[in-house]
TrEMBL record, chain B:
Listed name of the protein: Sulfhydrogenase 1 subunit delta
Residue intervals of the NADH:ubiquinone oxidoreductase-like 20kDa subunit domain: 15-149
Keywords linked to the UniProt accession: Oxidoreductase
Record flagged with keyword Phosphoprotein: no
Record's signal peptide: none
Keyword Oxidoreductase: yes
Gene Ontology MF term list: iron-sulfur cluster binding; oxidoreductase activity
InterPro entries: Hydrogenase_assoc-protein, NADH_UbQ_OxRdtase-like_20kDa, NADPH-dep_hydrogenase, NiFe_Hase_small_N_sf
Length: 426, 262
C-alpha cells in the first residue's frame, strides 16, 4: 500500500496551492498541483461595470504583479477605444512596469528561492549568516517599490496609471534621482547573477520545452508586443491567441490549464523570454548572456531563476535608457483626453513571470466582455509535467526530500497562484 | 508580553498584498527579533496552522468552505485576531459582485465544469469569528502594521481610526476632486490613514480602506452630492460597493436620497 505524498500548502509562493503525488507498483501514477486558493471571478465581477472602476479593480488580482495587471488592462482598454498613448507616456509606463519586474524578481530570487539552496525554511532566519544577500535583496526590492511609488502612487495596486497617461508625473529631479539609484543598483544585480549562476540546475527535469513570449516592439528586448513568438518557430498576432492557447477546467484546481494548439503544455517565464528573444538583449546583459549561455539553456525550468537574475541586470539598464529618452523631451504632459467608444482590445505583455493577456470589450463605457489569462494559469500543465519528472526520478527518496524537490520545481516557475484563480471565461 | 511573541499570518482568498506589504518592511527584521513565526506560508516552509499564537493576522476574504474551518481554527489558537486589509475586513473587491449569484459567477468563469472544492460568495472574516482589531487598506500602509504591532509589543492596544481620507486631503491642501473636478471621490466616507494617497495624485478615491463605521460614514450626504453631479443611484451604489459591498447601511442610506427626491 502506498501513501500519497502531499504538500498541503506550498510555502514561499504567492497564493495557496498544494502538490499531490501518488505512487503505484509501476512508480508515479498521478501528479496534481491542487490550486486551493478560492475563486475570485474577476472577469465575471467586472462585466457590466464602468471601465475606470474595473481598471482600478483588475490589479487586485495579484499584489506581486499588480503593475503588470494594471498596465496590461490599460493597454487593452486603450486599444478597445482606439487610443494610442504618446511615446513618452509609453516609456514611463514601461519604467513603472520595470519597477514591478525588479521588485518581483528580487523577491522571488532572494526570499522565495534562495532559502532552499542554503538550507533554510525562511529568509528571515538567514540574516545572521547571509547579511549581504538580505541587504541586496532589500535594496533591489526597495528600488522597484520606490519606482512604483513614484510613477504608480504605490508599490502595490497603483492608481496613478490611468486611461490616457498618468494622474500626475514626478518632477524632473525625481526622475534624475531614479536614474542615479538604478545606476547604483546595477552592480547588485550583477552580484545576484553571479550568485545564481552557481546554483544547481536539477538535470532530472531536463527535456524539450515549448516557450512562448512576445515579439517585442521596436525589436528591443522588452515587455510590450503585438505578436507572440513560439519556440517552435511559429508566430501569431496577439488578437488570434484563442486559436492557439486553449484553456481547460481541471477538477483539482480553481485555475484553468492552458494548452498550445489544443494539447501541448507550454512555458512562459523569464527563461522563455531569453529562449525566444536573447538576440534582442543589449548592454551588460548581452555580455553576460554570451558568457553564460551554457547555463541559460531553455530545456530546464530551473534556468528560470538565472534568467530572472539576468533580467535584473537588463531591465535596470533599460530603465536608465527610457528615463534618458523621456528627460530629453521634458517637460511632458501627464495625460491626454481619451474618448470612450465601443470596441474590443487585446493586450499581451511580459509580466515578471511570463505572458499575461487581457481582452476587454467596451460598450457604453462599461466592460461588456473580459478575458484574462495569467502566466501561472498558462504554466500549470507544464509545471505538473516537470513535478512528475522529478517525482519519477526520486520515487525512492524519503518523502521529505521528495516534497522539497517537488516544491523547488514549482518555485522555479515563480507561480502566482492568486493570479491563476481569477480564471478565464470559457 | 514576556519572552518572544508568537505570530501567525494566515491567508484566505486574496491577492497576498497585505502579507507582501508586511514582509517587505525593512523594519520587520527588527520587529521579528522579538517574535517567533509559527505559521506564515508565504515566507516560511516550517509553517503549521495548528500551533498556538499570540497574534494572528488574517488576510483575505472567506471564499471557500475550507476557509470557514480555517478561520474558526485560527480563532481557537490565537489570543488576538487581527483582520488585515480590505478582503478580511470588508470582503474585498471580490464582494463587488454580491448582486450576482454564485452560480452565475461560476458559470461565467468555469462553465459547467466542477472542481472538488467548495466555493462560496466572498465574506469578511468577522462574519464567522470575533475579530479583535482591524487594519484597513488595499493594501494597508506600512505604518498601519508598525503602529499595530508596535503597540501590541509594548503591551498596549492600538486605537481605531474614525475620521475620513477627506480630512487628510484637506490638510495637505489638495484641490478638491469632488467639488472642483466633479469626480466621484469617496474620500469623505473612507477610513483615513493613507495620507490621501490617490487624491494627491489627482485621482478620485475609490474607497479601498472601506467606509468609516456607519454612524459617521455619511453615505447619504455623499450620495446627495453625487446625485447633484448627475450620477444615477445605480452608479453611486456601484462605486460605493467596490470596497463596501457588505456594509449593512449603505443601500438604505443611498436609497433614502433618491426616494426623497422623487
Amino acid at each position: 500500500m502506498y501513501i500519497p505524498i502531499t504538500v498541503d500548502h506550498i510555502a514561499r509562493v504567492e497564493g495557496k496551492g498544494g502538490i499531490e503525488i501518488v505512487m503505484g507498483d509501476e512508480g508515479v501514477t498521478e501528479v496534481k498541483l491542487n490550486i486551493i486558493e478560492g475563486p475570485r471571478f474577476f472577469e465575471a465581477i467586472t462585466i457590466g461595470k464602468k471601465l475606470e472602476e474595473a481598471l482600478a479593480v483588475y490589479p487586485r488580482i495579484c499584489s506581486f504583479c499588480s503593475a503588470a495587471h494594471k498596465l496590461t488592462a490599460l493597454e487593452a482598454a486603450e486599444k478597445a477605444v482606439g487610443f494610442t498613448p504618446r511615446e513618452e507616456i509609453q516609456a514611463l509606463r514601461e519604467v513603472l512596469y520595470i519597477g514591478d519586474m525588479i521588485e518581483s524578481h528580487a523577491l522571488h530570487l532572494y526570499l522565495l528561492v534562495l532559502p532552499d539552496y542554503l538550507g533554510y525554511s525562511n529568509p528571515l532566519s538567514m540574516i545572521d549568516e547571509y547579511k549581504k544577500e538580505i541587504e541586496i535583496a532589500l535594496k533591489l526590492k526597495n528600488l522597484g517599490s520606490w519606482m512604483m511609488d513614484v510613477l504608480g502612487s504605490r508599490a502595490i495596486h497603483q492608481e496613478n496609471a490611468i486611461l490616457g497617461g498618468f494622474g500626475k508625473l514626478p518632477d524632473k529631479t525625481t526622475l534624475e534621482e531614479m536614474k542615479e539609484k538604478l545606476k547604483e543598483a546595477l552592480p547588485l544585480a550583477e552580484y545576484t547573477f553571479e550568485l545564481f549562476a552557481k546554483m544547481k540546475q536539477y538535470k532530472e527535469v531536463e527535456g524539450p520545452i515549448i516557450h512562448m513570449a512576445v515579439k517585442p516592439r521596436g525589436d528591443v528586448y522588452g515587455i510590450y508586443g503585438d505578436y507572440i513568438k513560439v519556440s517552435d518557430g511559429f508566430k501569431f498576432p496577439v488578437e488570434e491567441y484563442k486559436k492557439h492557447i486553449v484553456e481547460r477546467v481541471v477538477e483539482h484546481s480553481f485555475a484553468n490549464h492552458s494548452f498550445y494548439n489544443g494539447e501541448r503544455p507550454f512555458m512562459v517565464s523569464a527563461i522563455s523570454r531569453i529562449a525566444n528573444n536573447a538576440e534582442l538583449l543589449y548592454g551588460r546583459a548581452k555580455e553576460l548572456y554570451s558568457q553564460y549561455r551554457d547555463l541559460l539553456q531553455p530545456t530546464n525550468p530551473f534556468t528560470n531563476n538565472l534568467a530572472q537574475a539576468l533580467e535584473l541586470v537588463y531591465f535596470i539598464e533599460r530603465a536608465i535608457d527610457l528615463i534618458d529618452e523621456t528627460l530629453a523631451k521634458w517637460p511632458i504632459r501627464p495625460k491626454d483626453e481619451v474618448g470612450i467608444r465601443d470596441g474590443r482590445g487585446v493586450s499581451f505583455t511580459e509580466a515578471p513571470r511570463g505572458l499575461l493577456v487581457y481582452t476587454l470589450e467596451i460598450k457604453d463605457g462599461r466592460v461588456a466582455y473580459a478575458d484574462i489569462i495569467t502566466p501561472t494559469a498558462m504554466n500549470l500543465a507544464m509545471m505538473e509535467h516537470h513535478v512528475r519528472m522529478m517525482a519519477e526520478k526520486h520515487s525512492n527518496d524519503e518523502p521529505e526530500q521528495l516534497k522539497l524537490l517537488a516544491e523547488m520545481v514549482v518555485r522555479a516557475y515563480d507561480p502566482c497562484i492568486s493570479c491563476s484563480v481569477h480564471v478565464a471565461r470559457l | 508580553m514576556a519572552g518572544k511573541i508568537r505570530i501567525g499570518f494566515y491567508a484566505l482568498t486574496s491577492c497576498y498584498g497585505c502579507q507582501l506589504q508586511f514582509a517587505m518592511m525593512d523594519e520587520i527584521i527588527q520587529l521579528l527579533n522579538k517574535a517567533n513565526i509559527e505559521c506564515w506560508f508565504m515566507i516560511d516552509r516550517d509553517s503549521d496552522e495548528d500551533r498556538d499564537v499570540d497574534i494572528a493576522f488574517i488576510e483575505g476574504s472567506v471564499s471557500t468552505e475550507e476557509e470557514v474551518e480555517l478561520v474558526k481554527k485560527v480563532r481557537e489558537k490565537a489570543k488576538i485576531v487581527i483582520a488585515v486589509g480590505s478582503c478580511a475586513v470588508h470582503g474585498g473587491v471580490q464582494s463587488w459582485a454580491n448582486d450576482k449569484k454564485l452560480e452565475e459567477l461560476w458559470k461565467t468563469v468555469y462553465g459547467d465544469a466542477k472542481v472538488k472544492f467548495q466555493p462560496k460568495m466572498a465574506e469578511p472574516v468577522e462574519k464567522y469569528i470575533k475579530v479583535d482589531y482591524k487594519i484597513y487598506g488595499c493594501p494597508p500602509e506600512k505604518k498601519d502594521f508598525l503602529y499595530a504591532l508596535g503597540t501590541f509589543l509594548v503591551g498596549s492596544w492600538p486605537e481605531d481610526i474614525d475620521y475620513p481620507v477627506c480630512l487628510e486631503c484637506r490638510l495637505k491642501g489638495n484641490p478638491c476632486i469632488l467639488i472642483e473636478k466633479g469626480e466621484p471621490c469617496l474620500g469623505p466616507v473612507t477610513v483615513a490613514g493613507c495620507d490621501a494617497r490617490c487624491p494627491s495624485y489627482g485621482i478620485a478615491c475609490i474607497g479601498c480602506r472601506g467606509a468609516i463605521s456607519y454612524d459617521v460614514a455619511w453615505f447619504d450626504s455623499l450620495a446627495m452630492t453625487f446625485k447633484e453631479k448627475g450620477l444615477t443611484k445605480e452608479e453611486i451604489l456601484e462605486r460605493m460597493k467596490i470596497f463596501n459591498a457588505h456594509n449593512p447601511k449603505l443601500e438604505e442610506m443611498v436609497n433614502k436620497i433618491f426616494e426623497e427626491g422623487e
